[in-house]
Design a protein that fits this description.
Elements (H helix, E strand, L loop, with lengths): L12 E5 L2 E3 L3 H4 L8 E6 L2 E7 L2 E5 L3 E12 L7 E3 L6 E7 L4 E3 L2 E3 L6 E6 L8 E3 L9 E3 L10 E6 L4 E6 L3 E2 L7 E9 L3 E9 L2 E10 L2 E10 L1 H11 L3 E9 L6 E12 L1
Parallel strand pairs: 1-9, 2-10
Antiparallel strand pairs: 1-5, 3-4, 3-6, 6-7, 6-8, 11-22, 12-15, 13-14, 14-22, 15-21, 16-21, 17-20, 17-22, 18-19, 18-21
Length: 270
């Protein structure tokens, strides 16, 4: 029989991973929210594969082996720009593999303790640090909980009628390192409109606005990782200043009223 010719060592074991959660220190690291979409898997220091979550994947081997798992993201929300999120600590563990059997594992990400949380805003406090710019035509950014808000807590929301412009930036400006240091803006959103996200840069010659991405509209909450490492570095070289303010912009050209929700803002770097 054909099956008699198959060595047991060639029969794969299987691993199931539903999702990768996250644990944070709320005071230092902000909300425990994640937009991890993939898992990078290493077995005995060799890359096993990269898998979109949830996943069941085969592994050739038996007995105990060392595994390393890295949470993977869509940088800037782009499906064609995926990579491991290196601001998380790799998840190291040992697993005992049994050919032709499947085991389910639960993984949790943690931020590296060396990561600098330059700014974070989750709108849980009544006084927040996300203020409208001179371009904004809206009266205020509403802080709401309950229906529509992220995870039952407080979120920021605005209603945009025809020709309204929404633009908010961090209250303070922050120094960023440049020089290729991994730097991200993280944010959660649910929006009837596309959102422009980027940063203002202040220098001796004035303030320059630098858009980085347009995030597509979404009827469900999404958490995005805006990769600004190269953008920040290029602007520092160009203008000789390292002071930045993240911003989010939207405008409504239609006759229909649109809603924009924002939450879990973080400006972080290694």
């Amino acid at each position: 029989m054909l099956s008699a010719c198959i060595k047991k060592a060639d029969i794969p074991a299987y691993i199931h991973i539903d999702r990768i959660g996250i644990v944070t220190d709320p005071l230092k690291e902000g909300s425990a929210v994640t937009g991890v979409t993939d898992v990078w898997v290493y077995m005995d220091n060799n890359l096993q594969g990269v898998y979109e979550l949830p996943t069941d994947f085969p592994v050739i081997g038996s007995g105990k082996h060392n595994f390393r798992f890295l949470g993977g993201i869509k940088r800037n929300g782009q499906a064609n720009d995926r990579g491991a999120y290196h601001l998380f600590v790799p998840i190291d563990t040992s697993l005992t593999l049994v050919p032709d059997q499947k085991q389910t594992i639960i993984l949790l990400n943690h931020y590296d303790t060396a990561i600098k949380f330059v700014w974070k805003e989750d709108f849980e406090n009544s006084i927040h640090t996300f203020m409208k710019t001179g371009k904004c035509t809206l009266d205020t950014l509403y802080r709401l909980n309950g229906s529509g808000a992220w995870n039952g807590g407080y979120s920021a929301m605005d209603t945009l009628r025809k020709l309204d412009i929404m633009e908010y930036a961090s209250t303070n400006a922050y120094s960023l390192p440049g020089n290729g240091v991994e730097t991200y803006i993280e944010f959660s959103y649910k929006s009837d409109l596309p959102l422009e996200v980027g940063f203002f840069q202040a220098s001796a010659t004035g303030v320059e606005q630098y858009p980085v991405i347009i995030a597509n509209s979404s009827t469900e909450w999404k958490h995005l990782y805006l990769h600004i490492t190269e953008d920040v570095g290029a602007q520092i070289l160009k203008r000789g200043a390292s002071i930045f303010k993240p911003y989010i912009y939207a405008s409504n050209a239609s006759d229909t009223t649109k809603l924009v929700w924002i939450d879990n803002l973080k400006l972080i770097h290694r």
